Amino acid sequence: MGIELRRYALLVWRWLWLIVLGTALAAGAAYVVSWRTTPVYSATVTLLINHAPSFGFANSDYTSLLTSERLARTYSELLRTPKVLGPVADKLGLSKLPVVQVQLVRDTQLLRVSVEDTDPALAAAIANTVAQVFKDMNEAQQLSRYTALKDSLTNQIQQVEKDVATTQVEIDSLRGPLSPSEEARRAQLQTTLAQYRSNNTSLMNNLTQVRLAEMQATNSVSVAQEAEAPIAPVRPRTLTNTALAAVVGALLALGMAFLIEYLDDTIKTPDDVEQVAQAPTLGLIARIEGGEPTKLITAHAPRSPISEAYRVLRTNIQFGSVDKPLSSLLVTSGNPTEGKSTTAANLAVVMAQSGKRVVLVDSDLRRPVQHKYFGLSDQRGLTTALMDGQGPVEEYLQATEIDNLRVMSSGPLAPNPAELLGSQRMAQVLDELKQHADVLILDSPPVMVVTDPVLLARQVDGTLLVVDAGNTRRAVLARALDALRAANARLLGVALNRISTSRSGYYSYAYQYTYYYAGDGQRKKRSRRNPVARWFGGNGHSPDASDVAVTSSECADPMR
User: How many whole angstroms separate alpha carbon 187 and alpha carbon 358?
Assistant: First the structure.
């Protein structure tokens, strides 16, 4: 679990530039768009909905509350209709109907009517006008419900009053001595008059109740809080938009980084080598900048961290050959331009610096470069030694500026290099060279290009495969290993070349625990600051004599 978390942390650190770039671009774009967007203001007016009880019925408080809530939901729909918004637009002189948003406050009888506009004062005016127009329309609608009933009751009262007056006049006319028939008529008229007066009283009471209900109905919609001109716009929210865009940009960049890593099938770390090759990583070597004269860094800058990496490679090769002494070593790669010639040359130098007699043979008879690294002639070399079966091989060795190191260049290019390298004479040349050296190092062509390294691998004690970190694909490494193993080659391990010197790379992690020695020879531990980044951070010079290299046991294992 810890290794996985560390791997993810390294991945994030390696792609931190992309994450920062994605975050900055997204945040910058959101800020510019928000800054250039016209601000929009929102004003809100709050309406209170009260249900007027029906005429002749006494509603309970709970029933009245439910009815009011249902009425509020109905009003929330009516407020958005052109019947309401049309008069508002006419009243304020708007060119188009305003757009309102109505929110029903849960478990209340309140409605919030919101209006958005680029002018804060106009937004407040529209919201208050919408409330007033709706209130007036609702009042007029409520009043219209009682108009016909009031007119009918009024007409009936007027008719009854006329009947009362007519009956009273007729009763008054029957005075003085009356006959029995007149007495009966008078009694009948008095009964009718009493009935008219009773009806008139009932009608008057009904008219009073209707008017009372009408008064209650006019107060069913009221403004609880008027809208005020807002100060701050509701959008764009520049800070919020910028922050959200930054988060989204970072997530997208992180996802892109993971996608790139997932699709990338190149070898970049010792873990990748272990998964594909099931072979140890013997060395981690940084990229050497510059042309061919600077490739021999172990001779020109022996105290640089890259030179120390070659010493670590030398030490690990020696550890790997404890049971079986290593007198001859083949250095090859899967593809061209992976740095196998540079590795062979620098490895030969550090082995010679350790006191061993070393012979470096440029067995790449197709594109030889060792004579260029050491500034030697290529007129005579391996090909002339193979073609001349009489003279001693030692005559074709050339001394170098490095003590204990001699080089056999490739010699003139031959038309049949595979036949020469696989010949019996080649075996004899190698046997003779071993008599003049403690370690014989052969620089051969790439495995995936020609069969030369397969022929040579059978004649040496061990093979070192150089892999270009970040460029060599897994399939290429697997096929190269299959070819070497098919030839029964003894694979010592892999040298991971051109490791990134950035702080996110394995190279800097390998040097995380770097020990320096003080002038008095006492070892002191320094901080975890990356020495590679410090040494290569722009001054371009190598550390001086006071800077001491890393111990081989610590650098051999980059995961320590």
Answer: 155
Residue partners of 189: CB distance under 8 A and separation at least 6: 167, 170, 171, 174
Q: Under a CB-based contact definition with an 8 Å cutoff, are residues 203 and 157 in contact?
A: yes
The model's confidence at residue 517, banded by pLDDT at 50, 70 and 90, is: very low
- CA–CA gap between residue 194 and residue 200 (Å, rounded): 10
The domain ranges of the chain are 2-37+236-263, 41-225, 289-462+510-556
pTM, to two decimals: 0.59
Helix (H, G, I), strand (E, B) or coil at 517: strand
β-bridge mates for residue 468, sequence order: 497
Specify which residues 240 forms β-bridges with. Answer: none
Sign of CA dihedral 152, 155, 161, 162: negative
470, 268 Cβ separation under 8 angstroms: yes
308: how many CB neighbours lie within 10 A of its CB?
A: 23
Q: Cα separation of 193 and 156, whole Å?
A: 15
Are the beta carbons of 359 and 347 closer than 8 angstroms? Answer: no
**Rounded to 5°, angle at Cα 244 from 243 and 248:** 120
Q: What is the DSSP string of 65-125?
A: HHHHHHHHHHHHHHTTSHHHHHHHHHHHT-SSPPPEEEEEPTTSSEEEEEEEESSHHHHHH
Q: What is the dihedral of CA 187, 188, 190, 192, to 10 degrees?
A: 170
Q: How many CB atoms lie within 10 A of CB 478?
A: 13
Which run of H or of E encompasses 365? none
Give Cα separations from 424 to 279, 332, 429, 456, 505 (angstroms). 31, 21, 9, 12, 45
Rounded to whole angstroms, the Cα distance separating 55 from 216 reads 10
The alpha carbon of residue 293 and the mean position of all alpha carbons in its chain are separated, in whole angstroms, by: 44
In CATH, what class is 289-462+510-556? alpha beta
Q: What is the C-alpha to C-alpha distance for residues 439 and 221, in angstroms, rounded to an integer?
A: 103
Please state, in angstroms and rounded to a whole number, the distance separating the CA atoms of residues 275 and 303.
33
Query: If you compute the radius of gyration of the chain from its CA atoms, what whole number of angstroms results?
Result: 51
Report the alpha-carbon distance of residue 406 to residue 495 in Å, rounded: 23
Chain centroid to CA 71: how far?
49
Contact 487, 494 (CB under 8 A): no
355 versus 503: the higher-pLDDT residue is: 355
- Domain covering 41-225, topology: Alpha-Beta Plaits (3.30.70)
Angle formed at CA 424 by CA 318 and CA 434, multiple of 5 degrees = 30
What are the tens digits of pLDDT across the range 175-223? Answer: 777 788 888 888 888 899 899 889 989 989 988 888 887 776 555 788 8
d(CA 360, CA 283): 20
Among 292, 302, 273, 284, CA closest to 481: 273
